[in-house]
Design goal:
Structural class: alpha/beta
Distance between the termini: 27 Å
Shape: globular
CATH architecture of one domain: 3-Layer(aba) Sandwich
Mean pLDDT: 87
CATH topology of one domain: Rossmann fold
Helix content: 55-70%
Strand order of the largest sheet: 4-5-6-3-7
Number of strands: 9
Radius of gyration: 29 Å
Length: about 650
């Protein structure tokens, strides 16, 4: 679209709709729209822009200048020389504009009605009821439990016996033993303001922060304030809930809702289902989804892809008015000048809960680990017991040692020998890798995998399960060790003691869900503790072909260090294994990815190498395939460099 001046530019708009590579004049309204929507740097990557200077013309004088002609010529040549990339970018521009501007007919009609001052008629799709008459009667009177604000309670029988709540429970956000610090108040209030602003019926927000940053406690406070002061329904939902039944039941209460999903990077399909059910629900109070994750990345950027061909859902999951974040909690990290105050509050709160006298003084809190609340709380608990530790490894080791003391005490109460400690440690490590198991049958099956269990009489297996259920009961099954960082540290220690446990975690019978959960835990552990990356490397070397696809998807969701370790293992694998893995990953590889860039380059390098070594087939066909593979590889290298 080579206009000298243009208020908008339907020619360019039609080119975008037709996914045709576009050369556009900078003196057009369309170029202004692209800049305002994406920012100039990103907008330039989608289209080729030129300055049309122009001149007054008549029948004898053209209204363009020679340098205009040269600019157009060069842009066309550049587009044709890189036609495949230009076509891919044209397709991406259409999709991203559709998501960013919510370009669907329903939204167009809404804007039209708003411009005329007309009210928008609410039309709801009929969703057949899945409730029995008894369930419908119950839902009319009882509040929904689809979303709950988590709380921890210590069994009364333990308290009566003088058994204290273990550190792992005191450290969990749900215990709320330590007060919510006032320095986090502004962020809590900012999230509440975002929620109650009724600009859109459905909105999403990604709150990102590393493990121990205080995301869960922050959202517990948000939920409590919304419910108690604003009359909302707010809470966390977990994977056991049925979205198609539970969400409509919650919406029927007629109150605005805020729902929190933890580990959101592994729950893309669930997020899509929540939005889909909310869009089609008969009752439609405002709905806010707050997603908690350690970071954004590919899973967040491509969240709308999980909606498939449903443009309405995709628009909500990608629109700049409905999708916010990631909001990273870097600015909310605890500054050095505030750490002693944080520590004193935590120490006094733990002391009051334990009915002990808080010792005076604080340890050296200058290390960067104390920028996160979890490690200040670990230091406060250690100080309360007279331990002085300032490294993350020592603090986590002290907490795990305290957890083991509870295992010993419970074994002793059950008249079981201390030799069972190794079985408990391995069983808890496996449960932590898999995110726990809600049913007793599944939890017992996981415990059976622990190598140390093979040395115990079968009759004692059930007794070990009952011992663990006293501390980690989860609707009849067993949770893993929490908080997450504590659980990850337990996994690393258990692997250090028995390498056979690593193989047990990835048996052939392991479900895909459990494999991805275990790989995710190891990826998070490896990011925090570089030395622990050896566990990821080792398990991929042992089971590359069977784990490579799952490892690739975990790399998309969770990021470093998984993609680089997978690339390294592929590169050094035995030829036959490497060839089969490369063929598999090439067929599954996503078209657009940031997290997997290095892995993508390595896979394409290997594909080129295999083609170069190929001894059979027609020369021309092989050469064409080789040239195409080389082109892809160079393209990915260029994108990585950019």
């Amino acid at each position: 679209m080579l206009s000298w001046h243009e208020g908008f530019g339907l020619t360019g708009w039609e080119a975008i709709a037709g996914e045709v590579p576009l050369i556009v004049s900078r003196q057009t309204g369309l170029w202004q729209l692209l800049k305002e929507t994406f920012g100039e740097r990103i907008a330039r990557s989608y289209v080729r822009t030129i300055d049309i200077r122009g001149q007054e013309g008549n029948d004898d004088i053209a209204n363009f200048r020679p340098d205009d002609e040269l600019s157009v010529r060069d842009s066309i040549i550049d587009c044709v020389a890189n036609l495949r990339d230009a076509q891919e970018l044209a397709t991406k521009l259409k999709r991203d504009l559709k998501y960013k501007l919510v370009c669907i007919w329903e939204q167009t009609a809404r804007v039209f009605c708003d411009g005329l001052g007309l009210s928008w008629p609410e039309v709801h799709a009929k969703v057949p009821s899945t409730l029995s008459p008894a369930e419908a009667a119950h839902s009319a009177t009882a509040p929904s439990n689809f979303a709950t604000i988590p709380k921890l309670a210590w069994p009364k029988e333990f308290a009566a016996k003088g058994i204290e709540m273990p550190d792992s429970m005191l450290l969990r956000a749900e215990s709320r033993v330590v007060r919510f610090h006032h320095l986090r108040g502004p962020l809590r209030d900012a999230i509440i303001r975002w929620a109650i602003e009724r600009d859109k019926p459905i909105k999403l927000r990604l709150q990102a922060g590393r493990g121990g940053a205080g995301k869960t406690r922050l959202l517990i406070e948000v939920c409590e304030k919304l419910e108690n002061q604003n009359g909302w329904r707010a809470g966390f939902i977990d994977r056991s809930q049925s979205t198609t039944i539970g969400l409509p039941e919650l919406l029927r209460e007629g109150k605005p809702c805020l729902l929190v999903l933890d580990y959101a990077e592994t729950r893309s399909s669930e997020i899509v289902e929540l939005v889909r059910v909310a869009v089609h629900a008969k009752e439609s109070p405002p709905l806010r989804l707050v997603l908690l994750a350690r970071d954004g990345g590919d899973w967040w950027n491509h969240l709308a892809d999980a909606a498939g061909k449903d443009d309405v859902i995709a628009a909500i999951l990608q629109g700049f008015q409905t999708k916010a974040g990631p909001y990273r909690m870097e600015q909310e990290r605890i500054q050095r000048k505030d750490r002693v105050a944080f520590f004193d509050d935590a120490l006094n709160d733990f002391a009051a809960f334990r009915k002990k006298v808080a010792p005076a003084g604080a340890p050296d809190l200058s290390d960067d680990i104390f920028a996160d609340p979890l490690f200040i709380h670990l230091a406060a608990l250690a100080c309360l017991r007279g331990d002085v530790a300032i490294s993350d490894k020592d603090l986590l080791g002290i907490a795990i040692g305290h957890e083991r003391s509870y295992w010993r005490q419970l074994l002793n109460n059950a008249d079981l020998p201390e030799q069972f400690m190794r079985s408990i440690e391995q069983g808890m490590a496996l449960l932590t890798l898999y995110g726990g198991k809600r049913s007793a049958k599944e939890a017992k099956a996981i415990l059976e995998r622990a190598p140390a269990m093979s040395q115990i009489e079968a009759s004692d297996h059930a007794r070990i399960f009952e011992v663990l259920r006293q501390l980690y009961d989860w609707d009849g099954g067993l949770r893993g060790l929490q908080p997450d960082i504590l659980g990850e540290a337990l996994v690393s220690e258990a692997f250090d003691r028995d390498d056979e446990l690593l193989d047990s975690a990835f048996l052939e019978a392991t479900t895909r869900e459990d494999v991805r959960s275990a790989l995710t835990v190891l990826t998070r552990l490896g990011r925090r503790v570089p030395d622990a990356q050896r566990w990821l490397r080792r398990v991929l070397q042992r089971r590359l072909r069977s784990l490579s696809e799952d490892a690739m998807y975990v790399g998309m969701e969770t990021g470093a260090p998984m993609p680089d370790i997978l690339a390294e293992v592929v590169k050094t694998a035995e030829r036959h294994e490497r060839h089969r893995t490369v063929d598999l990953l090439r067929s599954k590889f996503p078209k657009e990815t940031f997290n997997l860039t290095n892995l993508d380059v390595e896979i394409r390098r290997q594909a080129v190498a295999f083609l170069e070594d190929k001894k059979t087939g027609k020369g021309a066909k092989r050469d064409i395939a080789l040239a195409e593979a080389l082109g892809h590889c160079l393209s990915r290298c260029a994108k990585r460099a950019n």
